[in-house]
């Protein structure tokens, strides 16, 4: 008797799943994606190219104090540029049946590599800044351009290696659209939890600790010259949380749906809408990072002006001593 009721329960869940339509959600997202992705593409392309050009100029001047941060910022801008370039293909391929599975996989790889490359790069920037503030004398040798470039290379290797599960996103599903109809294996615990923990929760914990600790140290110094640095740290943390927290919460809810913990149609439709909206607006991160670039460049320029003023004062003092 129990086995009969169990089978009937499974059949009713299966029927409910088949009868649950997501057509109106997808139709709504077509308009939302057009409204968000087109300006994001245009602005992101322009702003990130300008950022790469701006930080490259600091590298050309070969100022050791700015080299590490400039390399990290260029790396972040490249990841953002990669995301920007994948947006037109994502927008089109998510609405039509893909003509080439290999091309669909390539676009999905570029999209998620750029997302998690940005996550790891922002985390490294936060950790690097914290160490520079906490113990500047001890870490000065770790912030060489060569070692910073090596760290960026490690990030690229990690995200490309981590993209391996993307090749089986759709499994044996015959009729699918890019970024839709993922296989059950994609939402298995062995794939989902490493992605969630190492791809988001751990970087967010590191960044949260480093940012809060850095701001606390700088506020304790009571120096107006550190105001730009405080704004840079606070802005980076805010952009990170706003961009990546909603989408990873949506991933978790979709994991519950795909593993049978949430079966009610209305809840599943709401989660599908939330997932697509959060992914759509997380792409705006490639434009929001410009605020981080702005405050970093402002910090660089303030430091350069301060150094020039100190040199002028030293020259004046030497002149006065010589005349005396």
UniProtKB/TrEMBL annotation:
Membrane topology: Multi-pass membrane protein
GO molecular function: cannabinoid receptor activity
Residues spanning the membrane: 32-51, 63-85, 105-127, 148-167, 187-209, 230-253, 273-297
Highest rank taxon of the organism: Eukaryota
G-protein coupled receptors family 1 profile domain: residues covered: 47-293
Cell location: Cell membrane
Keyword Cell membrane appears in the UniProt entry: yes
Keywords of this entry: Cell membrane, G-protein coupled receptor, Glycoprotein, Membrane, Receptor, Transducer, Transmembrane, Transmembrane helix
Example of a GO biological process term: negative regulation of osteoclast differentiation
GO (cellular component) term, any one: plasma membrane
PANTHER family, per database record: G-PROTEIN COUPLED RECEPTOR (PTHR24232), G-PROTEIN COUPLED RECEPTOR 55 (PTHR24232:SF56)
Family as reported in the entry's similarity comment: Belongs to the G-protein coupled receptor 1 family.
Record-given protein name: G protein-coupled receptor 55
Source organism: Chinchilla lanigera
